[in-house]
Every structure is written in C-alpha cells, then in structure tokens.
Amino acid sequence: MKIYYFLGIGGIGMSALARYFNGMGNKVYGYDRTCTELTLELEKEGMEITYNDDASTFPKGVDLVIYTPAIPQDNNILNYIKENNLPLEKRSQVLGEITLGKKCIAIAGTHGKTTCSTMIAHILQNSSVGCSAFLGGISKNFNSNYVINKNSEYVVVEADEFDRSFLQLTPNIAAITAIDADHLDIYGNKEELKKSFLEFANKTKEILFVKDQVELETKEGLQKYNYTIRGVDADYFAINIRNYKGSYYFDLRTPDKIYYDICLNYGGLHNIENAVLSITISLCCGVSEEEMRKAVELFSGVERRYDLRIKRDDFIYIDDYAHHPNEIKALIESLRDQYPGKKLTGVFQPHLFSRTKDFADEFAKELGKLDEVVLLDIYPAREEPIIGVTSKMLLHKIDKMDKYYCLKDGLCDLLEALYPEVLVTMGAGDISNLVPEIEERFKDE
Question: The whole model's pTM is what?
Fold first, then answer.
C-alpha cells in the first residue's frame, strides 16, 4: 500500500484519479478549497480531505503528491511540498503513466469530449469488450467519473487541452471533436492551440477520428477518418434524423454499411453528432451491432451536459456546462429544435475574466438568441479581476430588451417573476450549486 496526496482533489479529473488509487487499495489524502457533493462522496469512499490550506494538515509518509495546474502558486500546502522536495507530479503525467501498456482511447476537443468519452465508456462497458475510464463528468449510468474493469485492455480518457495536459498521452485511438479558440490565457492565440492539437494527433498510434470541419495535416501512416452530424463528404455521418416524443432516431452511414433506426433517448441535436463518433469508435473496438444499439438507447448522459432536471408539459429545466460561445450556440439550437415555439429563458454565469474579455462580442451574439437572458457575476476560478470586464459589461453588449443582471441569492425570485417555459442554466463555475434550489422552487408548480 502506498500513500497518495491530491492537491485539488475535488476537481473532476483529479477525483477520478483519486478513486483509481483508492480502489487499488492505497491510502488517499487530499486538499480542496471548498467542500462539495463530490468531495463528500470521496470521503464516504474512505479518503481523508482537508479544506484548510494549512501545511500542518499534511500527513506523514506520503509517497507521491498529485496536483492540478489550477492550484495557485501561493498555496501553502503546495509550497510546503516543494520546500521539502517531496515527489510531485501533475495529474496529466500520472494519467499518462496509468494508460501506458493499455489500449488507450483518448477524446480531445474544445467541446463535446466529456459526453463522447462517457458515451464510449458506456457502450464498451455494456458489451463483451469492456473498459476502464477516467471521465470529465459524472456519468448518470455509472453514477461516477471513474470506471474500473480489470478484465478489459481498453481505457477511455478525456484528453484535456488545458495546460497542454493531453500531450502526456499516447493513445491507440484518438478523436478531436473541435478546435475553437479557447484557453487563450495559456496559448496566446488559436494557431498555438492548433499546434498543440496537431502534436496530440501525431502521438496517436493507430486511428484518429476528426470532426469534418477540423483541418490537421497529420503524420503519414496514421489512419484518419472524419465524422459529422450531417454531411455526405464525411466518412461517418447521420442521415434521416427524426425527433419522436423527445427521443431521436437516426441512421448512421459508414464506409461499409448503414445502421438504420438507432435510438438516442439523450436530448440535444448536437448529441447525435457525439453519438456518431462514440458509436464509430465502439464498433472499431469490436462491439457488436446489437450491443451498440442497446447501449445507445440506455445512455442517460452526463451531469451538467444537457442535463434534464425537470420535465412537465408547462415547464422544462435543463442544466448545462456550456461556457464558450460555440457551446452556447449549439445548446440553444438543440433547445429550439427539441422545444419549438416555447419561450426560452437562459441563466449564464461567465467563467474566467480572460475568456469573457476575449469573447465578449461572441457571447453577446449567442446569448441574444435567447428570449430572456439572465447574467450572474463572472466566476473567477484561478484568475484575478480584469478592470472593466464584468457581467454588466457583457449585458450591455446583448442587443435585446429582455435581459437582466442578478446576484445568485436573488435568482430564484427573478425566475419566478419571469414565468419561464424552457429554462436553461449555463456555465462552468459554481452555478451548479444553484441547481437544487431552482429544482426545489419549480418542482411542484
């Protein structure tokens, strides 16, 4: 048995690793700034977590400290570890080491990677192939962000581009779902971001799947295929898409055959595209058509990804992680497609001052497509404020009358006054903490 310490254990990627080491019979300690539902789950599983940034809480005999780059450099525990020259590795390094010697399936991209990696893991695990998985969200089917299958050689991972983390991986099968300008605080510009994705693609050993709009000149000898939701020029694409009583039916066209009448009960038009990729990779791994069909129909999705919280004839509530303009665009298009004619009210918590500054005009354009928009204060995460960059600044850019700025503690009162028909909460910050309160307020109306 070894002793591991996780700095930032409450992060979604960190907690999956912590569960792995804990499940392998090791002792796991950790620190996080805030106590959440996820950290409480980790404690129930036997891990010891402190929420106090005090070096005196650091346990003795730790064999390895694993940290996330999101931990600020002035963190007292981090500095204690460095001063005492204790073994210290980034989460991405450790994930790369764990996946060596396995058949690694790595899903990268600025959007869609969590849903795709989770759907692939669900299909594989509900087949004779099986898999282990490290996911970037809580799967509703697994009720976890971590899956262990000691009898399978496959491991599915979400390949995160933040801080170039995904370059620690050497996948057998990889996918890139999108390369949109993001994390410019790390990369500086989109070209540098694209170079990093190209480097990731060229680390792939066998097969690379790329969204049809992504252009990458990859190394010779790599099998490369493209996919899309619609587009006859792609190798894999959906046709004959139908929406029937909240479920989607579509046919999947591949270079070899057409799979007719696949049923996806997980909402969102954009999730058909995610299903095209997930099914394609699963079939490449040896999943049978019958196993694939059953698994896709039973896929329940991921918490905070087109997450249907309340469904009544008079009121729909969906919570989503969307925090980039293109994610908001896809989300609103899906909602309009699934709930035509209904008034769409959106609550958005901007994530990061830098992202809000870089994409203010794009955010304003997409948020303006809502019937009513409510903005909460910017969630700073790891950043210090930027002068002039606020939610009120963003609100002024939205070209519509039905727009509101609101503090979190007044949100439910405002929403009640607006009488929403379809309500969506969006953002990657702590807006998720408001979901139970919104559910409680609207559940019996």
Answer: 0.92
Cβ neighbours of 53 (radius 10 Å):
17
pLDDT of residue 408: 97
Low-confidence ranges of the chain (pLDDT < 50): none
pLDDT for 445: 58
* pLDDT, tens only, 303-331: 999 999 999 999 999 999 999 999 999 99
Q: Can you give the pLDDT at residue 382?
A: 80
Say if CB 105 and CB 115 are below 8 A apart. no
Closest C-alpha to 97, from 25, 184, 155, 173: 155
How would you classify the pairing of strands 247-253 and 372-375? unpaired
pLDDT of residue 440: 95
Residue 241 phi, psi (nearest 5): -80, 130
Q: Which residue has the tokens 């009358």?
A: 401
Encoded tokens for 248: 């989607």
Cα gap 392→404, rounded to integer Å? 9
Distance CA(437)–CA(423), nearest Å, equals 14
The reported pLDDT for the residue numbered 246 is 79
* Integer Cα distance of 65 and 81 in angstroms: 8
Please give the Cα distance from 49 to 251 (Å, whole number): 47
Pairing of strands 403-405, 372-375: parallel
Contacts of 199 (CB under 8 A, 6+ apart): 167
Instruction: Name the phi and psi angles at 30, rounded to 5.
Output: -170, 165
Burial class (CB in 10 A: 0-12, 13-18, 19+), 444: exposed
Give the torsion sign (CA, 187, 191, 193, 198). negative
